[in-house]
Amino acid sequence: MRQPLRYPWFNFDVDDVLAPVVAVRIDVPDTKVEAPDHHHRKGQLVFALAGGVICRVSSGLWMVPPHCAVWIPGGMKHSNIATANAQMFFVYIEPGAAELPNRCCTLLISPLLRELIVELSDRVEDHDGRGDLLTRLLLVEVLRMPVQQLHLPMSSEPRLRRIADALAKDPADRSTLAQWSNRVALSESSLARLVVKETGLTFGRWRQQLHLIVAIRELATGASVQQVSADLGYESVTAFITMFKKALGKSPGKYLSDVSRNGGFGFVVD
Fold it and tell me: At residue 113, what are phi and psi to the nearest 5 degrees?
């Protein structure tokens, strides 16, 4: 059995491994961990079996919800932020081994693909050819996985990056658009237009998307609805549940139970 990598896992240079697919299990310690920005030749599939992971790229934040994975194309600079005690799997795929998207996206993971990832991560040597067979099956199965768009659009525009960084550190900040415009020395109308231009969302919808990402990540790690509601600055649990249900069509508890029961299929978030 291959021993799982622990922090700091990002010292592992996967590009030194000559194989079409390399699956690595990552066990995170009991504190939140963020890998620094890096890139590699191989594309990377980030899959969380337990806990939560957020992938940060220049164009946005991509959440790894239960039974899903984030695909990061080769050569794209990124960092991975893992919650305490997360159990993750990194699947590195050589360019050209499969016709995967050339953009970052979230893929739903079938029970079969999940088991293939776990099995390949435990294999050290392949004396009987079974590893090659599992690899070929994984490359076929991953192409069948549907895409869901649960991510937060980001911008390199300095003023919006400042707001994004502040809200990522303190998602409970309920400052109004007018208050933010004063902080970044823009008129309220100019900031509103800038947010739409750079992200495609209004400021309110953009902040709500951040709240959804944080909420699902925290709920997946065992936090209560009451705790998440308070951490996000909602005046009441009812207000938080209403927001969540309006955005995703299900209450927080129903959403997570359905994802867990169905292996992640059937939930597409725009």
Answer: -65, -40
- The domain made up of 5-148 has a fold known as Jelly Rolls (2.60.120)
Domain layout of the chain by residue ranges: 5-148, 156-262
- Measured over the CA atoms of residue 87, residue 93, residue 99 and residue 100, the dihedral's sign is positive
DSSP label at 80?
Answer: E
- Measured distance CA(206)–CA(186) in Å, rounded: 18
b/e per residue 8-42 (b: at least 16 CB within 10 A):
ebbeeeeeeeebbbbbbbbbbeeeebebeeeebeb
252 alpha-carbon distance from chain centroid: 18
Mean pLDDT by runs of 10 across the 270 residues of the chain is 49 77 85 78 89 80 77 91 81 93 88 93 71 93 83 85 86 93 96 94 92 83 90 94 91 79 43
| pTM of the predicted structure, to 2 decimals | 0.72
Q: Which two tokens stand for residue 223?
A: 């936090």
Coil, helix or strand at residue 85? coil
- Asked if the domains at 5-148 and 156-262 fall in one CATH topology, the answer is no
* Architecture of the domain spanning 156-262: Orthogonal Bundle (1.10)
Distance CA 17, CA 24 (A): 12
Taking the alpha carbons of 137, 140, 146, 147 in that order, is the dihedral positive or negative? positive
CA distance 131 to 146: 25
By the 8 A CB rule, do 58 and 156 touch?
Answer: yes
Two tokens at 124? 């050290």
Rounded CA-CA distance 141/160 in Å is: 38
Q: What is the longest distance spanned by two Cα atoms in the chain?
A: 67
